[in-house]
């Protein structure tokens, strides 16, 4: 990932210099939260914490970056000299990746000298927003296609290389089987999947020759692309070639269909394979899919065993942004509150507690002031992860995070598992504690 300290907004630097000039160095509390869920979203899945912690631990200004800032003429020499030793020395509490959360719940709390806590705003929002968007989109696909093989196909339509790689990680965390993005395999251990493009088929004189040559080159777990010319004719060719492929040691596991009426093609290909002794060969579909199209295909009984999901996943096309914020909640021990119309915040450092129903499903959440007695029978969601600028423990493995995400999704009430927005009265209850409401009223009475 890009670890430059200059991956930030200019105002973070101008405020940092102003804090420096004024000698403002008392500790501040900032919290990152989402004001409102996007349309059609009944929950969000936290992701990106690992990259956020990497950023905070590694944050520093290089000599080249300081030279560029100096040449800009915007910053004073004494401030730039101070930046040479600038590091993040604060504390972070956060929800674990894979945790389901809702509007108005802080998912990350930063406590540090105000300049440090302020400066990291832009990159933290950048990292957590994107991964959370993609993990949530992927989770919706997982809920739409239980038990199906789901693979991220979205690198080529992602908004840049970092986005493509982080999307592969976030979707795997949320329950996908893997990704076509090779770097995600090398960097994160995400299983990588791939077949062939239509160009490979077209480059051969005969479709049969392309199938045979590819199977000879890549004999392990072969998936053949069969919709370049005539999908059903290609399926019949696969049946005819199957004995020769087996004799060569090729392991044919599936075919991929990428165009046309996927349900109709899948039904016909399944019939051809079942009648030709290839009942064990699966059908994998791709082509501008999202959770809604997948749900419709499966509701229609399409015999599809897996899906490659690209553009709609890595751009979170129907909800490409979060109404998220990173706001000051306390400075020098005094609670602070933004009161802007439509963007008011709850003051003070906070904790989020979760209550579960008797069957283990999510029942409700409570947002309280940090230090309030926890509601009986609830679990605290924000946990310490960084102290004094360093991790408290090694990060969980990606497989452990997948397990945590799967557990959270399994606990969602039925109303929240649907792809459409929950009906009135079915949205998840998030209670703001009376003490927090009272503190907000007290802060509002102060002169400003």
UniProtKB/TrEMBL annotation:
Gene Ontology biological-process entries: NAD+ biosynthetic process via the salvage pathway
Protein name in the entry: Nicotinate phosphoribosyltransferase
Class of the enzyme per the UniProt entry, highest EC level: ligase
Reaction(s) catalysed by this chain's protein: 5-phospho-alpha-D-ribose 1-diphosphate + nicotinate + ATP + H2O = nicotinate beta-D-ribonucleotide + ADP + phosphate + diphosphate
Family: Belongs to the NAPRTase family.
Keyword Thylakoid annotated: no
Organism, as annotated: Thauera chlorobenzoica
UniProt KW keywords: Glycosyltransferase, Ligase, Phosphoprotein, Pyridine nucleotide biosynthesis, Transferase
Job description of the protein: Catalyzes the first step in the biosynthesis of NAD from nicotinic acid, the ATP-dependent synthesis of beta-nicotinate D-ribonucleotide from nicotinate and 5-phospho-D-ribose 1-phosphate.
Record PTM text: Transiently phosphorylated on a His residue during the reaction cycle. Phosphorylation strongly increases the affinity for substrates and increases the rate of nicotinate D-ribonucleotide production. Dephosphorylation regenerates the low-affinity form of the enzyme, leading to product release.
InterPro entries in UniProt: Aldolase_TIM, N/Namide_PRibTrfase, NAPRTase_C, NAPRTase_N, Nic_PRibTrfase-Fam, Nic_PRibTrfase_pncB, Nicotinate_pribotase-like_C
Molecular function terms, GO-annotated: glycosyltransferase activity; nicotinate phosphoribosyltransferase activity
Keyword Transmembrane helix part of the UniProt annotation: no
Pathway recorded for this protein: Cofactor biosynthesis; NAD(+) biosynthesis; nicotinate D-ribonucleotide from nicotinate: step 1/1
EC number: 6.3.4.21
